[in-house]
């Protein structure tokens, strides 16, 4: 079996997947793919627009479709999907097969604080029906199931988180 080189960062919204992923990719000279940006590039619509106008099911379909198209095996990629990718079984099986998965773990209280500090235009998949606590519990269990590594990130500054991820890779 081929060694997995690429990295997928998973975690709740506000966990820093995109910010940290870009920093790690820049530091290593790797490619960085933010799934939200890829969807916008392919469809011409933002995550929030799709969620608001076409609904959660369509957004999940697009996340699945575009993740399945990524060639993780022949590139060095830091992949930052939305926290809802966990609901796309086929896509998660692909990233589990082809990448090392790192769960950037934050406690619920920290997520609540961070969500309160930034406006969420279109929302978060599943938030309206389940509420943040239930959504967190559901996703946390799923993230743990798929994670090769878990980094407790609540007391780390960006540079420390970047360094921890790089240590896990090498």
- Tell me what the CATH architecture is: 3-Layer(aba) Sandwich
Mean pLDDT over the full residue set: 92
Helix content: 40-55%
Oligomer: single chain
Question: In a nutshell, what does this entry contain?
Answer:
With 170 residues, the protein is an alpha/beta fold.
Verbal overview:
Helix 4 (56-68) packs parallel to helix 5 (89-98). The chain has a single domain, classed as Rossmann fold (3-Layer(aba) Sandwich). The protein is an alpha/beta fold and 170 residues long. It contains eight helices and five strands.
SSE blueprint and pairings:
Layout: E1 7-10, H1 17-28, E2 31-34, H2 35-43, H3 47-53, H4 56-68, E3 77-80, H5 89-98, E4 100-105, H6 108-117, H7 127-146, E5 149-152, H8 158-169
Parallel strand pairs: 1-3, 1-4, 2-3, 4-5
Kindly list the characteristics that best describe this protein.
single chain, 5-stranded parallel beta sheet, Rossmann fold, 55% helix, 170 residues, alpha/beta
């Amino acid at each position: 079996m081929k060694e997995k080189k690429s990295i997928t960062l998973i975690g709740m919204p506000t966990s820093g997947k995109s910010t940290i992923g870009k920093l790690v990719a820049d530091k290593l000279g790797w490619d960085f793919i933010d799934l939200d940006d890829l969807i916008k590039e392919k469809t011409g619509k933002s995550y929030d627009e799709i969620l608001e106008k076409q609904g959660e099911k369509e957004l999940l379909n697009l996340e699945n479709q575009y993740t399945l198209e990524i060639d993780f095996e022949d590139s060095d990629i830091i992949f930052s999907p939305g926290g809802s990718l966990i609901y796309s079984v086929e896509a998660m099986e692909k990233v589990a097969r082809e990448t090392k998965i790192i769960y950037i773990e934050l406690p619920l209280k920290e997520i609540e604080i961070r969500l309160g500090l930034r406006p969420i235009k279109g929302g978060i998949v599943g938030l309206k029906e389940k509420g943040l606590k239930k959504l967190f519990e559901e996703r946390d269990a799923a993230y743990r199931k798929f994670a090769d590594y878990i980094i407790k990130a609540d007391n780390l500054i960006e540079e420390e988180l970047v360094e921890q991820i790089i240590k896990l890779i090498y």
